[in-house]
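Input (structure):
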């Protein structure tokens, strides 16, 4: 089969790495891809939102199967466009991708179907939101309704901050049109866990758990980022938690989407908080997480293409997922200054050190070819993943491997997965 993967970051590199092991694949393309993905796939310079061009390309190359990885094209209906053209693809249709595309939709769904989540209210205008804040309990969480690159969430410790936040989201439109609507939510405390699942509309299969580190600096300081590192599995995701989530959260979400006429096929990413009152949903994503995928897929034993096709074809009940009994840690190597201001174009050296080492992966997040060299091309540049028998071992190996590569303004956190050693 000839396969086209849509996207060009570390997550897509991990997906292409996984797919490359499938014997069914004859040729792989990736749009737009990056310098790391180029090892597995022919990279095609088409943007993820250029739907007409992507469909035309897939037709021209007689692509058999498309994997749509990022949130924007999923929310925009790229899977529907491929379907219209008669091309099978992995990912939710537009009417199901709304699970991530609108926080108001997902909160209303959880309320209607009794899926545990934080208390909330939805507002369409700033005045009503400001009036609500007068009597609300602090701290409080403000969320822009639409997609905002994972940055549309403000945690406000008091009323003043919350009022300023409402203005930023709804009046100054800091997150663009994502802020036309806003969810105001109860502040929860507890451990966060990310759980990725495969879904075929009816059946859900749960992958191993992971945890992200979203803040830019050591000790969870600094600004929120797209993710500075991950580990898998999470020791806090116990069998008891898993059982509760399967019964009260995962299957009910799949059933709810079906009952709403929005059958979900693809990956549902459950962002959970383990609160004193039990696990609750922080957010849904309608796709693989980044950089969660970089620690989850390297541990999966199944043929990735086979699982994806089962999601598309509604035959996931025939598949059991299998994961290695080990651990993985991914440390993101970023450009200093990320997520605010950073330089690109520095040569990356040492990539060859990862060749032929089964336990180590260097996933490219932002890299490009320039004058025959591989250069930095984004805020997050590489994701260095290592597997080990334990989280401690995986972490030590991942940090060793971060020294194998160099580039100008290289920056990383030094405490990815550290809290778990001490817990
Ligand atoms: P989200 O994009 O909804 O996952 O929010 C981003 C981050 O904000 C989450 O990973 C949490 O750390 C934090 N967050 C979101 N909602 C809440 C909440 N209700 N209470 C506490 N923290 C939250
Ligand atoms: N790592 C969080 C996300 O992919 O949204």
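Output (sequence):
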């Amino acid at each position: 089969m000839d396969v086209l993967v849509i996207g060009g970051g570390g997550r897509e590199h991990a997906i292409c790495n996984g797919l490359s092991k499938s014997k069914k694949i004859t040729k792989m393309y990736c749009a737009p891809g990056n310098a790391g993905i180029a090892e597995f796939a022919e990279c095609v310079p088409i943007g993820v939102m250029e739907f007409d061009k992507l469909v035309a390309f897939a037709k021209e190359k007689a692509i058999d199967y498309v994997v749509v990885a990022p949130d924007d094209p999923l929310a925009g209906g790229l899977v529907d466009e491929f379907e219209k053209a008669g091309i099978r693809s992995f990912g939710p249709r537009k009417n199901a991708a709304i699970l991530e595309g609108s926080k108001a939709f997902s909160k209303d769904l959880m309320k209607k179907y009794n899926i545990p989540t934080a208390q909330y209210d939805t507002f369409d205008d700033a005045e009503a939101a400001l009036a609500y804040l007068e009597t609300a309990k602090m701290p409080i969480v403000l969320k822009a309704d639409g997609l905002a690159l994972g940055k549309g969430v403000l945690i406000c410790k008091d009323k003043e901050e919350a009022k300023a936040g409402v203005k930023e989201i709804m009046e100054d439109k800091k997150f663009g049109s994502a802020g036309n609507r806003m969810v105001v939510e109860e502040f929860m405390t507890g451990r966060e866990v990310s759980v990725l699942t495969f879904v075929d509309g009816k059946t859900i299969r749960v992958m191993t758990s992971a945890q992200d580190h979203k803040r830019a600096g050591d000790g969870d300081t600094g600004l929120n980022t797209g993710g500075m590192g991950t580990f898998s599995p999470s020791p806090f995701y116990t069998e008891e938690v898993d059982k509760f989530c399967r019964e009260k959260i995962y299957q009910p979400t799949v059933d709810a989407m079906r009952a709403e006429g929005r059958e979900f096929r693809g990956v549902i990413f459950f962002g959970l908080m383990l609160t004193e009152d039990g696990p609750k949903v922080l957010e849904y994503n309608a796709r693989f997480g980044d950089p969660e995928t970089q620690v989850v897929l390297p541990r999966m034993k199944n043929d990735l293409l086979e699982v994806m096709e089962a999601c598309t074809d509604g035959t996931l009940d025939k598949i059991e997922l299998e994961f290695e009994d080990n651990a993985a840690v991914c440390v993101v190597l970023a450009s200093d200054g990320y997520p605010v201001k950073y330089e690109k174009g520095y040569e990356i050296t040492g990539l060859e050190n990862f060749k032929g080492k089964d336990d180590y992966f260097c996933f490219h997040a932002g890299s490009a070819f320039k004058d025959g060299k591989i250069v930095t091309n984004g805020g997050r540049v590489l994701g260095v993943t290592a597997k080990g028998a334990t989280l401690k071992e995986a972490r030590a190996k991942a940090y060793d491997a971060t020294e194998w590569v160099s580039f100008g303004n290289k920056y990383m956190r030094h405490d990815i997965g550290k809290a778990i050693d001490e817990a």
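Notes: The pocket of adenosine monophosphate (ligand 1) is lined by residues 118, 141, 143, 150, 153, 155, 185-188, 192, 214, 271, 282-283 (CB under 6 Å). The first helix runs from residue 10 to 19.
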